[in-house]
Design goal:
- The complex is a heterotrimer of chains A (315), B (271) and C (372).
- Chain A is built from twelve helices and two strands; from the N terminus they run H-E-E-H-H-H-H-H-H-H-H-H-H-H.
- In chain A, helix 11 packs antiparallel against helix 12.
- With 271 residues, chain B is mostly helical.
- Chain B has a single domain, classed as MetI-like fold, CATH 1.10.3720.10.
- The longest helix of chain B has 35 residues.
- Chain B is globular and about 75 Å long.
- Chain C folds into two domains: 228 residues, Rossmann fold (3-Layer(aba) Sandwich); 122 residues, OB fold (Dihydrolipoamide Acetyltransferase, E2P) (Beta Barrel).
- Helix content of chain C is 26%, strand content 33%.
- Chain C is built from ten helices and 21 strands.
- The longest helix of chain C is centred in the middle third of the chain and has 18 residues.
- The radius of gyration of chain C is 25 Å and the shape is elongated.
- The chains are: A mainly alpha (315), B mainly alpha (271), C alpha+beta (372).
- Chains in contact: A-B, A-C, B-C.
- At the A-B interface, helix 1, helix 3, helix 4, helix 5 and helix 7 of A face helix 1, helix 4, helix 5, helix 6 and helix 12 of B.
- Chain C: It holds the Pfam family ABC_tran.
- Chain C: One of its GO terms (cellular component) is ATP-binding cassette (ABC) transporter complex, substrate-binding subunit-containing.
- Chain C: One of its GO terms (molecular function) is ATP binding.
- Chain C: This is ABC transporter ATP-binding protein.
- Chain C: Keywords: ATP-binding, Cell membrane, Membrane, Nucleotide-binding, Translocase, Transport.
Chain lengths: 315, 271, 372
């Protein structure tokens, strides 16, 4: 009897061992499977995002030749030069001003459009399509449209200005106006996307909330302030951060409308990087600027992740 | 909720005024593209409509080549993104393995790196691969996309996990389950992402500007810039004709997919 | 012959609290075995472990006398029906039914053969080209069953398959599933939280709570001799009336909740009832209506439910609410004091501390079960 039970115990143990091996094998198998599904993405991220970013940081400590190979290690000198260079400081200043000009106006206009386009009215679909249309218009096309509108002699805007009895404005050539003009173009271009997202946010608000407010006799603006805006806050927050990030990355409209001028007034950071790297072939200094851009965007995304979940009102 | 006629009227007025202001630049471009140069220069209303501007644009510039290139590039990027994002999203939703959460954070981290900030080494990589002026140089860097992965992940998560378990019991492997169940079931979100991918690729500007040096693979956006800078100063009709050609495919796509796009983007962004 | 055998099956996540604790049981071939318990009791986890969808932390699982702990679901030769049916929304009914056969690479001819047979059996022949969203809840349920039937696996697992159906349909499907199982000779393991389903369908039932087996047995055994207070209150509707009880010093009376004295024969009180804190239980149908002469108590009615074929009455007994179920229609109003008859042979005795059954009702079996 004791032999039989010994055998049983042994059998039990060997089974345990088999289970363990099988489990381990399965774990390895599922790991490999997971990696296989993810490997295309990971590979491309590594080659075209992570490595270039690290390489950018590396390059920012060097001087380079025209082909981009490093020549002299200069430590922080590129950064020191940047932050003592009036051109770069001006570029930073313009970038922040640009963010300040574009983001609030874009969001407010889009919100207004989303609110009026969210009413259940006949034909509202047509208006929604119109409002979102600028999302389908590329930077290049939009810039060309506005290039004509800003045209000093035959542009539509100056026609209006002159009809109103003012002096013609050098929209793109007057340093006082150039950044404003770029901002107007950008706002117009961004409205399509922000409108679409905000409309989606509005439509996901439960209609019961409005119905119960109606029963309580709440007015239109009361509902807007007490239900719509708070319930929309996650969407608003998302839209604001995305618009800010986009503003930091602005390039095309500047390349077509002003090429950074006049007097570097519209030399926003990405354009500044582009010019430094691909016109002046100063890859080290351009990389240092790219690192600054990276840090700015990193901060914005970090803020979005950190406060995006908590500060806003979820259902 | 019912609305009084007065209130309705106010909304219609607001809607109409906003639509006119917003659509004015596009409308203006459209009209100008059919106007004679004479009318444009004198600033008058169109006295006659003509297709000359379009003819001139196509004659003087390889617009067909540009359009073709843009289609190829946009469709390649769209397909690449759909494949890579859906594979990755599948792994994050349906597979359990060690290191998955870590890799998820890696994907999140990619959203913190703007492509513009890494553009210098990227240009060097493409150059060293001899990919300048090639379709692969214009497309492959954009195949992997965190936003698209998250968007699909949200949608895949709505597929009941019992479907996977039923397949497991039936003895179906992961790749077949991905192909025959997940992709067809999540069709709508794939369309959304496809539309989004096509739109953004079609409208890409900075990268095609750097990665093309001649007309062989140059996209229509850069072509438009060429048109604008090379065209003798005041031939606006031709420039506008070019711009209209550039925006027509994306506008059509947007009008068709607006509802899906709106729902998809809100979901991917917020949940 | 044992189809499924569980030996000390244990489940825990991340070495935390055990979700299932040393579950041992064996299920016979052709048996309809029901796992019942409240939500969170671990019954679904147990089923999923048998299916191979969850890892077994500890213990041995045998199917057909073969240890299968380490085998993936497809090698366990079983079928499963899910609560939400798990129908593929993009496939037609036909494709859904054939899904598993295609994955297993069964020949085309045989696929069609089995499809025809199954569809006929389940009354789905007319619906084969429809998509799941074009089907009613009951039809979807049938497709899910068909998918299980067509696989011809000898062991079928069901995870609350009826909980998404309305009450009327559910009653129908109970009968259908039961008939199907008998006809095909399937071994069935059926998970539900609904004790009525468990009682009406199961050959045997296992009551599970907090990952621990409360009792395994035939439905009638669980009803008449609940092993502990949990089973007593879980099985049966309305639940068994329970109350704390104490013997008078001379053992001539048992006083329930301090207010309801029951006459006892002191000689019949066994020793093991004397030294423990008692809880007694009595089924609602065992509180009979009393005639003037044989009434033992007069109780004030606090609620009346007229169901037509029977009448349910509620009384306050100390801190407990007791119910009585009388067949037929009774004109009784809330506030009436009515005569009832409660007799000692219908009482179940439990230990209040360990909650275990000490003595089942003696009158139970002889009266309730009528052998034919």
């Amino acid at each position: 009897m004791s032999i039989a039970s010994d055998l049983a115990v042994q059998n039990q143990d060997s089974m345990e061992l088999v289970f363990k091996q099988v489990r381990k094998k399965q774990k390895i198998k599922s790991f490999i499977k997971g990696i296989l599904f993810l490997s295309p993405s990971i590979l491309l991220f590594s080659v075209f995002l992570f490595y270039p970013m690290l390489r950018t940081i590396y390059l920012s400590f060097f001087l380079t030749d025209a082909s981009g190979s490093t020549t002299v290690f200069v430590g922080w000198q590129n950064y020191i030069n940047l932050f003592t260079s009036p051109v770069f400081l001006k570029s930073m200043m313009s970038t922040f001003l640009f963010v300040l000009y574009t983001v609030p106006v874009t969001v407010i206009i889009s919100l207004f459009l989303a609110v009026i386009a969210n009413e259940k009215l006949k034909g509202v679909g047509f208006f929604r399509t119109i409002y979102s249309s600028s999302m389908g218009i590329s930077v290049a096309a939009a810039s060309v449209f506005w290039l004509y509108l800003f045209n000093p002699s035959m542009g539509f805007l100056n026609m209006i200005v002159e009809a109103l009895g003012f002096e013609a404005i050098g929209w793109l050539t007057d340093p006082a106006w150039a950044l404003v003009s770029i901002s107007i173009t950008t706002i117009w271009m961004n409205i399509g996307f922000t409108f679409l997202i905000l409309l989606g946010g509005l439509q996901s608000i439960d209609s019961y909330l409005y119905e119960s407010a109606d029963i309580d006799g709440a007015g239109y603006f009361y509902k807007l302030r007490r239900i719509t805006i708070p319930m929309l806050s996650p969407t608003l927050f998302f839209v604001i951060t995305v618009t800010i990030i986009n503003a930091f990355q602005t390039f095309g409209q500047i390349d077509i409308l002003t090429q950074g001028g006049p007097a570097n007034e519209t030399n926003l950071i990405v354009y500044s990087i582009y010019r430094e790297a691909f016109v002046n072939y100063q890859f080290g200094s351009a990389s240092a600027q790219a690192v600054v851009l990276f840090i700015l965007i990193l901060l914005m995304t970090a803020i979005q992740f950190k406060f995006g979940e908590r500060k806003v009102h979820y259902q | 909720m019912t609305m009084g006629t007065g209130k309705k009227l106010i909304f219609y007025i607001l809607l109409t005024i906003s639509a006119i202001i917003l659509f004015a630049p596009t409308l203006m471009a459209l009209v100008m593209s059919f106007m004679s140069n004479q009318d444009i220069l004198t600033g008058s209303l169109p006295t006659s409509l003509t297709l000359d501007n379009y003819k001139n644009a196509f004659e003087r510039f390889p617009l067909f080549q540009y359009l073709f290139n843009s289609f190829v590039v946009s469709i390649l990027i769209m397909i690449g993104q759909l494949v890579l994002c859906s594979l990755a999203a599948y792994a994050f939703v349906f597979l359990e393995f060690k290191g998955r959460d870590l890799l998820f954070y890696v994907f999140i981290a990619t959203m913190m790196i703007p492509f513009e900030a890494s553009i210098i080494p990227n240009f060097h990589i493409i150059r060293d691969l001899n990919w300048i002026d090639t379709y692969q140089g214009l497309t492959i860097p954009f195949f992997a996309m965190a936003f698209g992965t998250f968007l699909l992940r949200q949608n895949f998560k709505m597929i009941p996990k019992e479907l996977k378990e039923a397949s497991q019991i039936a003895g179906m492997g992961d790749f077949r389950f991905y192909l025959t169940v997940v992709l067809p079931v999540a069709k709508t979100s794939l369309v959304t992402l496809g539309v989004y991918g096509f739109l953004t690729s079609w409208n890409m500007y900075l990268w095609p500007l750097l990665a093309t040096t001649n007309d062989s693979v140059r996209t229509v956006q850069i072509g438009l810039k060429q048109l604008q800078t090379q065209e003798q100063l005041n031939d606006w009709g031709v420039i506008m004709a070019g711009a209209v050609i550039v925006i027509i495919p994306t506008l059509i796509l947007l009008f068709l997919g607006q509802k899906k796009l709106q729902r998809g983007l809100t979901e991917g962004a917020l949940k | 012959m044992e189809q499924v055998e569980l030996i000390d099956i244990t489940k825990s996540y991340d070495k935390q609290k055990k979700v299932l604790n040393e579950i041992s049981l064996s299920i016979e071939k052709g048996e309809f075995f029901v796992l019942v318990g409240p939500s969170g009791s671990g019954k679904s986890t147990l089923l999923r472990m048998i299916a191979g969808l969850e890892d077994i932390t500890d213990g041995t699982l045998k199917i057909n006398d073969k240890v299968v702990n380490h085998l993936p679901p497809k090698e366990r030769n079983l079928s499963m029906v899910f609560q939400n049916y798990a129908l593929y929304p993009h496939l037609t009914v036909e494709q859904n039914i054939l899904f598993g056969l295609k994955a297993k690479k069964v020949s085309k001819v045989e696929q069609q053969e089995r499809l025809r047979e199954t569809a006929e059996m389940m009354g789905l022949s007319e619906l084969l080209s429809r998509k799941p969203r074009e089907l009613s809840g009951g039809q979807r349920q049938r497709v899910a069953l068909a998918r299980s039937v067509v696989s011809q696996a000898p062991l079928c697992l069901m995870d609350e398959p009826l909980s998404n159906l309305d009450a009327k349909l559910r009653a129908n499907m109970r009968v259908e599933i039961r008939r199907l199982q008998k006809r095909l000779g399937l071994t069935m393991i059926y998970v539900t939280h609904d004790q009525v389903e468990a009682m009406t369908m199961g050959d045997r039932i296992m009551v599970l709570n907090d990952g621990i087996i409360q009792q395994i047995g035939k439905p009638i055994t669980l009803y008449n001799e609940p092993a502990n207070l949990f089973v007593a209150s879980f099985i049966g509707s309305p639940k068994m009336n329970l109350g704390k009880a104490k013997f008078s010093t001379d053992y001539k009376q048992l006083i329930i909740e301090g207010v309801l004295p029951i006459e006892m024969d002191p000689l019949s009180v066994s020793e093991r009832l004397k030294d423990v804190n008692l809880t007694v239980g009595i089924r609602a149908e065992h509180i009979f209506s009393g005639m003037e002469e044989n009434a033992t108590h007069y109780l004030e009615v606090v609620n009346v439910e007229h169901l037509g074929n029977e009448t349910t009455l509620a009384f306050d007994i100390g801190t407990e609410l007791w119910t009585a179920k009388w067949p037929g229609q009774w004109m009784i109003n809330v506030g009436d004091k009515i005569p009832v008859r409660i007799s000692v042979e219908h009482l179940c005795y439990f230990d209040s501390d360990s909650e275990e059954l000490l003595k089942a009702a003696t009158a139970g079996k002889s009266q309730e079960v009528v052998a034919i």
